[in-house]
Amino acid sequence: MLSLRKGRYAARLAETEEDVRRAQRLRHLAFIARRGGAASRAGDLDVDDFDGICRHMLVEDTRTGALVCCFRLMPLAGGDEIARSYSAQYYGLSSLRGFKGHMVEVGRFCIHPERQSDPDILRVAWGAMARFVDAYGVEMLFGCSSFEGTEAGRYRDAFALLKERHLAPRRWLPRVKAPRVFRFARRLRREKPDERRALVSMPPLLRSYLAMGGWVSDHAVVDNDLGTLHVFTGLEIGAIPPARARLLRAAAQG
Fold it and tell me: Is the predicted pLDDT of residue 55 greater than 60, yes or no?
């Protein structure tokens, strides 16, 4: 079994239906109950049709057994399978059909609201993700990076920074598909960001992707179902700077 233990936290792939339900409960707490998403859910679970075709990674507190972080992984043999992904519901991804290597969509990433200040959780999560990448020969990670709430004005500096430094290469650039979007690359084309404010307001997972050379779509999708704004995010494994790659390998060591 693909697993990783570092200090207080351990990551492992879900093995049972109850493991998956624990992840769905944490997702409901993070995305629905706390954020006030408008989705209709059964009980206290966040469930969708993609859960049955994904692997689920759990990060647990080894002292208490509490689930502190989770995310799901959908391996794809290549870009010709991109239409199967969760992200393809919201973004026109025809440009990525030409990607030849193995891909993995990372989705529903969340940390327990009471544990978000602990950086070790994110480190263990990335270490587990790095192990998965190595085990399956993955050449691209992708998914939707979510900002809390649906008011784009709260994240003006963040979107301006994404526009200025982190837009996808033209050959991979996602197209608009969702009915409600914020076209930040167009709307903020003359705006200069305050970098400190931008980074503070960005989700930690997105900051990590960008630090490794990740890129984003030129627009954000307004997701009223989960009460979020999200941008398509891609990370080509071969483009990760060597120093960052060494850090990832170190994080992946148990």
Answer: yes
Helix, strand or coil for residue 140?
strand
Write out the residue range of the structural domain in which residue 243 sits.
Answer: 71-251
* 34 occurs within a structural domain: no
Angle between the 119-136 and 204-211 helix axes, to the nearest 10 degrees?
Answer: 50
Please, which pLDDT band fits residue 212 given cuts at 50, 70 and 90? very high
Taking alpha carbons only, the member of 187, 184, 245, 188 closest to residue 213 is 245
Give pLDDT, residue 253.
80
Task: Please name the residue ranges forming H helices in 46-102.
Answer: none
φ, ψ dihedrals at 219, nearest 5°: -145, 155
Going by C-alpha positions, the residue among 124, 164, 143 that lies closest to residue 235 is 143
Asked whether residue 193 is assigned to any structural domain, the reply reads yes
What is the three-class DSSP state of 96? helix
Cα distance between residue 184 and residue 211, in whole Å: 20
How is residue 39 written in tokens? 């989705």
Q: How far apart are CA 81 and CA 229, in angstroms?
A: 25
Question: For residue 40, what pLDDT is reported?
Answer: 44
- Across the chain, mean pLDDT equals 93
Q: Is 39 a residue whose pLDDT tops 70? A: no
CA atoms within 13 A on the CB side of 142: 31
Looking at the structure of the chain, the number of domains it has is 1
Residue 213 included in any domain? yes
